[in-house]
Amino acid sequence: KKPTITHQTCYIISMPNLPQPGDLIEIFRGTYQHWALYVGEGYIVHLCPPTEAAGAGAYSLVSVLCDTAVVTKESLEEIVGKDRFLVNNLLDGKHKPRSVYDILRDARSLLGLEMPYCILRGNCEHFVTELRYGKGESRQVCVYYALGVGVRAVAIGMKALNAASNISCVKSKQKRILL
Protein backbone atom coordinates (compact mmCIF):
# COMPACT_ATOMS: atom_id res chain seq x y z
CA LYS A 1 0.00 0.00 0.00
CA LYS A 2 1.36 3.40 -1.00
CA PRO A 3 1.59 5.72 2.04
CA THR A 4 -0.05 9.10 1.89
CA ILE A 5 0.92 12.23 3.73
CA THR A 6 -2.06 13.51 5.68
CA HIS A 7 -2.45 16.67 7.69
CA GLN A 8 -4.17 14.73 10.48
CA THR A 9 -1.18 12.63 11.50
CA CYS A 10 1.79 14.90 10.93
CA TYR A 11 2.21 18.63 10.94
CA ILE A 12 3.68 20.32 7.90
CA ILE A 13 4.96 23.82 8.63
CA SER A 14 5.45 26.60 6.10
CA MET A 15 5.58 24.30 3.09
CA PRO A 16 3.69 25.46 0.02
CA ASN A 17 4.31 22.16 -1.81
CA LEU A 18 4.61 18.56 -0.83
CA PRO A 19 8.16 17.22 -0.82
CA GLN A 20 9.77 16.35 -4.12
CA PRO A 21 12.26 13.50 -4.65
CA GLY A 22 15.72 14.64 -3.55
CA ASP A 23 14.39 17.16 -1.00
CA LEU A 24 15.80 17.24 2.52
CA ILE A 25 13.23 16.77 5.27
CA GLU A 26 13.81 18.34 8.69
CA ILE A 27 11.77 16.72 11.47
CA PHE A 28 11.47 18.61 14.74
CA ARG A 29 11.92 16.36 17.78
CA GLY A 30 11.95 18.96 20.54
CA THR A 31 15.58 19.23 21.60
CA TYR A 32 17.02 18.19 18.24
CA GLN A 33 16.09 17.74 14.59
CA HIS A 34 16.11 14.49 12.67
CA TRP A 35 16.95 14.66 8.96
CA ALA A 36 15.85 12.48 6.07
CA LEU A 37 15.89 12.46 2.27
CA TYR A 38 12.55 12.35 0.46
CA VAL A 39 12.65 9.69 -2.27
CA GLY A 40 9.07 9.95 -3.52
CA GLU A 41 5.67 8.28 -3.09
CA GLY A 42 5.58 9.12 0.63
CA TYR A 43 8.93 7.52 1.50
CA ILE A 44 12.17 8.78 2.98
CA VAL A 45 15.68 7.38 3.34
CA HIS A 46 17.40 8.12 6.65
CA LEU A 47 19.80 6.81 9.27
CA CYS A 48 18.26 4.66 12.00
CA PRO A 49 19.96 2.96 14.98
CA PRO A 50 20.32 -0.77 14.24
CA THR A 51 19.05 -1.79 17.69
CA GLU A 52 15.65 -0.15 17.30
CA ALA A 53 12.67 -1.43 15.38
CA ALA A 54 11.79 0.08 12.04
CA GLY A 55 9.98 3.34 12.59
CA ALA A 56 11.36 3.85 16.10
CA GLY A 57 14.86 5.10 15.38
CA ALA A 58 14.01 8.65 14.53
CA TYR A 59 11.78 8.98 17.58
CA SER A 60 14.48 8.33 20.12
CA LEU A 61 17.00 10.81 21.48
CA VAL A 62 18.93 7.68 22.51
CA SER A 63 19.59 7.16 18.79
CA VAL A 64 22.22 9.93 18.89
CA LEU A 65 24.22 7.88 21.42
CA CYS A 66 24.69 4.91 19.07
CA ASP A 67 28.00 4.49 17.26
CA THR A 68 26.44 2.88 14.18
CA ALA A 69 23.31 3.47 12.13
CA VAL A 70 21.54 1.65 9.32
CA VAL A 71 20.32 3.33 6.14
CA THR A 72 16.59 2.60 5.95
CA LYS A 73 13.66 3.47 3.71
CA GLU A 74 10.45 4.17 5.60
CA SER A 75 7.19 6.03 5.33
CA LEU A 76 7.54 9.76 5.99
CA GLU A 77 4.23 9.71 7.83
CA GLU A 78 5.37 6.92 10.18
CA ILE A 79 8.67 8.59 10.99
CA VAL A 80 7.21 12.06 11.50
CA GLY A 81 4.33 10.78 13.63
CA LYS A 82 2.81 13.72 15.51
CA ASP A 83 5.93 15.88 15.15
CA ARG A 84 6.36 18.76 12.72
CA PHE A 85 8.48 18.67 9.58
CA LEU A 86 9.39 20.82 6.64
CA VAL A 87 11.28 20.64 3.39
CA ASN A 88 14.60 22.32 4.16
CA ASN A 89 17.12 22.26 1.35
CA LEU A 90 19.26 24.37 3.64
CA LEU A 91 22.45 24.51 1.62
CA ASP A 92 21.01 25.22 -1.85
CA GLY A 93 22.40 28.77 -1.66
CA LYS A 94 25.85 27.49 -0.70
CA HIS A 95 26.23 24.30 -2.79
CA LYS A 96 24.69 23.23 -6.08
CA PRO A 97 22.40 20.23 -5.53
CA ARG A 98 23.34 17.07 -7.41
CA SER A 99 20.88 15.74 -9.98
CA VAL A 100 17.80 14.03 -8.54
CA TYR A 101 18.78 10.91 -10.48
CA ASP A 102 22.22 10.78 -8.78
CA ILE A 103 20.78 11.57 -5.34
CA LEU A 104 18.17 8.79 -5.54
CA ARG A 105 20.58 6.27 -7.13
CA ASP A 106 23.10 6.79 -4.32
CA ALA A 107 20.40 6.69 -1.63
CA ARG A 108 19.08 3.36 -2.99
CA SER A 109 22.60 1.92 -3.20
CA LEU A 110 23.10 2.56 0.53
CA LEU A 111 19.87 0.92 1.76
CA GLY A 112 20.56 -1.65 4.47
CA LEU A 113 24.15 -0.51 4.93
CA GLU A 114 25.37 -0.17 8.51
CA MET A 115 27.45 2.98 8.81
CA PRO A 116 29.54 4.60 11.54
CA TYR A 117 27.49 7.22 13.38
CA CYS A 118 28.99 10.19 15.17
CA ILE A 119 26.91 13.11 16.39
CA LEU A 120 29.75 15.52 15.51
CA ARG A 121 31.06 14.13 12.21
CA GLY A 122 28.57 11.65 10.77
CA ASN A 123 24.98 12.23 11.87
CA CYS A 124 21.69 12.08 9.95
CA GLU A 125 22.11 15.66 8.71
CA HIS A 126 25.63 14.94 7.41
CA PHE A 127 24.21 11.85 5.68
CA VAL A 128 21.44 13.62 3.76
CA THR A 129 23.50 16.69 2.85
CA GLU A 130 26.19 14.35 1.49
CA LEU A 131 23.54 12.74 -0.72
CA ARG A 132 22.04 16.04 -1.94
CA TYR A 133 25.18 18.17 -2.29
CA GLY A 134 28.08 15.72 -2.34
CA LYS A 135 29.33 17.35 0.88
CA GLY A 136 28.26 16.32 4.37
CA GLU A 137 27.51 19.26 6.67
CA SER A 138 25.52 19.69 9.84
CA ARG A 139 24.27 23.10 10.89
CA GLN A 140 23.12 21.62 14.21
CA VAL A 141 26.69 20.65 15.00
CA CYS A 142 27.96 24.08 13.92
CA VAL A 143 25.43 25.81 16.19
CA TYR A 144 26.19 23.56 19.16
CA TYR A 145 29.93 23.88 18.53
CA ALA A 146 29.64 27.69 18.40
CA LEU A 147 27.61 27.66 21.62
CA GLY A 148 30.23 25.43 23.25
CA VAL A 149 33.07 27.71 22.13
CA GLY A 150 31.13 30.74 23.37
CA VAL A 151 30.45 29.15 26.75
CA ARG A 152 34.12 28.17 27.06
CA ALA A 153 35.23 31.69 26.13
CA VAL A 154 32.93 33.19 28.77
CA ALA A 155 34.23 30.70 31.36
CA ILE A 156 37.85 31.54 30.52
CA GLY A 157 37.02 35.26 30.67
CA MET A 158 35.36 34.81 34.06
CA LYS A 159 38.40 32.92 35.37
CA ALA A 160 40.69 35.68 34.08
CA LEU A 161 38.55 38.36 35.74
CA ASN A 162 38.48 36.37 38.96
CA ALA A 163 42.27 35.95 38.88
CA ALA A 164 42.75 39.68 38.18
CA SER A 165 40.38 40.51 41.02
CA ASN A 166 42.31 38.24 43.38
CA ILE A 167 45.63 39.86 42.38
CA SER A 168 44.11 43.30 42.96
CA CYS A 169 42.85 42.21 46.40
CA VAL A 170 46.29 40.83 47.34
CA LYS A 171 48.01 44.07 46.26
CA SER A 172 45.46 46.12 48.21
CA LYS A 173 46.09 44.02 51.35
CA GLN A 174 49.86 44.39 50.89
CA LYS A 175 49.50 48.20 50.72
CA ARG A 176 47.47 48.21 53.96
CA ILE A 177 50.09 46.12 55.72
CA LEU A 178 52.87 48.49 54.61
CA LEU A 179 50.98 51.57 55.85
From TrEMBL:
GO terms for biological process: N-acylphosphatidylethanolamine metabolic process. It comes from the Eukaryota. InterPro entries: H-rev107_PLA/AT (IPR051496), LRAT_dom (IPR007053). Residues 24-140 form the LRAT domain. GO terms for molecular function: N-acyltransferase activity; phospholipase A1 activity; phospholipase A2 activity. The keyword Isomerase does not apply. One of its GO terms (cellular component) is cytoplasm. Keywords: Hydrolase, Lipid metabolism, Transferase. Pfam families: LRAT. Belongs to the H-rev107 family. This is LRAT domain-containing protein. It comes from Oncorhynchus kisutch. The lineage of its organism: Eukaryota, Metazoa, Chordata, Craniata, Vertebrata. The gene is LOC109874224.
